Sequence to fold (51 residues):
Amino acid sequence: MVTGVKCTASICKLWESCEHCDAIQFEVNIDGGGKAANQSQQTNYKTFYPK
Fold:
């Protein structure tokens, strides 16, 4: 588990109590491709697995 990563997606299989993610690695992509985002809303967290 990577430490210090806060997550509030409690419906994810990787979510642990106290708002921590139990993933060993993460994938975050930019909406529409590209290499840079100006705001967090322009990103997608691909390491999300519904319970």
